[in-house]
Amino acid sequence: AAEEGFDAEEVEGALEEAGHGPLPVLAVVGRPNVGKSTLVNRIIGRREAVVEDKPGVTRDRVTYEAEWAGRRFKVVDTGGWEQDVLGIDASVAAQAEYAIEAADAVVFVVDAKVGATDTDEAVVRLLRKAGKPVVLCANKVDGQSGEADASYLWSLGLGEPHPVSALHGRGTGDMLDRVLEALPEAPAQTFGTAVGGPRRIALIGRPNVGKSSLLNKVAGEERVVVNELAGTTRDPVDELIELGGVTWKFVDTAGIRKRVHLQQGADYYASLRTAAAVEKAEVAVILIDASESISVQDQRIVTMAVEAGRAIVVAYNKWDTLDEERRYYLEREIETELGQVAWAPRVNVSAQTGRHMEKLVPAIETALAGWETRVPTGRLNAFLGELVAAHPHPVRGGKQPRILFGTQAGTKPPRFVLFASGFIEAGYRRFIERRLREEFSFEGTPIHISVRVRE
Ligand code: GDP
Ligand code: GDP
């Protein structure tokens, strides 16, 4: 398609780049202080992330995007949680198991200077059960003399220990080469074996919004088909629940039912669990407590689901408690605080009374339909042609950039590449997104639009 100044190769390249499906997920696990956060910083090539953490400070990100040797993937960092009331083994195991469950491959970090401890052995057992590919990182090997320490870690039975200095970067390149070998091209969780099975729902929201009540309500009134045993580790459990005549898989429901209430690190633990559930799901049902002000934590959860590119439904719970005044303020808050998901189907429910439970499934179906929509190239270009003719881009410096043509590079969520004759301003991009949404009903799905400019 050598169209209007773009050669075929350029177009192909742009489509390939924009069309990538969801990225595979790498989890970095290990005891506190072995250097996980330092290593994650190395891998993502930024200092932004982690190490400045003070104990007890909530970290709002647990997933980062990384690229090595031209391949992109996500990294889940489990370094943000201090040992707490559970005691060290249980804390490490609990955070590791969520991360492992959501991951396609794992980097297990051990402090080579200390050697393998009992806690390390406990993590090894988890890793064995999970059966995911593992790359063993022997960290804190800052020089040649530390290499011998690394070789002791063969005893863990996880294969070759890779001597690394996360702090100085020594050996990290070789280790990342191994990681790429271990990591599948696409995440198995979302697009592998599960294709064709029941659709996967993550029920997410901050503590006390009513997740467990809602789950009990839907599972109680309808039939719980099976309680799947945890496939790998003891905690994350997926439940099959029949709703509206269709079987759905609610992922990681054990975490919801168990109601883990920890003192320290509870927020971090909750974020990790949310990130893991979102990774495993196709659609996120985000529960908001309508009786309380929409909080920063609510917004973070929304952002997590949007950034992960999942279909989204927003459910406002505890509707039974709302008076007229609260309803008025809620609508204002939704407008100002949740504009980023203004396109998501909305249901106002009460897990307590069962109000509007029947609206949940149609909303989920709408969101999934939007998420999977593919617009034929002909139709897209007819639409773009009319749009651009009726609403041209503003003239800048005597030139008028034009959208020349466009194509959809992928779905789940829909991704578009537009080819343009000059720089397209952010305002005009938003305008196009808005019109695309109106025209093709992308309700309940993030959409990605990238613009290529002819050189
Ligand atoms: P985490 O708790 O596993 O995330 O560990 P951190 O990344 O916070 O690191 C714990 C401590 O070990 C910090 O003081 C780091 O600077 C230090 N550290 C991390 N990696 C290395 C390394 O490769 N060599 C040395 N000497 N110290 C390291
Ligand atoms: P989770 O932490 O998100 O799982 O929240 P829970 O399901 O444990 O609910 C937290 C509290 O809110 C409990 O006391 C529930 O009884 C209450 N709750 C949940 N849903 C509703 C609702 O729709 N209406 C009212 N009035 N209370 C609710």
TrEMBL record:
Gene3D superfamilies in the cross-refs: 3.30.300.20, P-loop containing nucleotide triphosphate hydrolases
Record's function text: GTPase that plays an essential role in the late steps of ribosome biogenesis.
Species the sequence originates in: Streptomyces pactum
NCBIfam families: GTPase_EngA, PRK03003.1, small_GTP
Alphabetical GO biological process terms: ribosome biogenesis
UniProt keyword Repeat present: yes
GO MF entries: GTP binding; ribosome binding
Keywords: GTP-binding, Nucleotide-binding, Repeat, Ribosome biogenesis
Subunit architecture: Associates with the 50S ribosomal subunit.
Sequence positions that bind GTP 2: 205-212, 252-256, 317-320
Domain EngA-type G: 24-187, 199-372
Residues involved in GTP 1 binding: 30-37, 77-81, 139-142
Lineage: superkingdom: Bacteria
Pfam families noted in UniProt: KH_dom-like (PF14714), MMR_HSR1 (PF01926)
Protein's UniProt name: GTPase Der
HAMAP family listed in its UniProt record: GTPase_Der
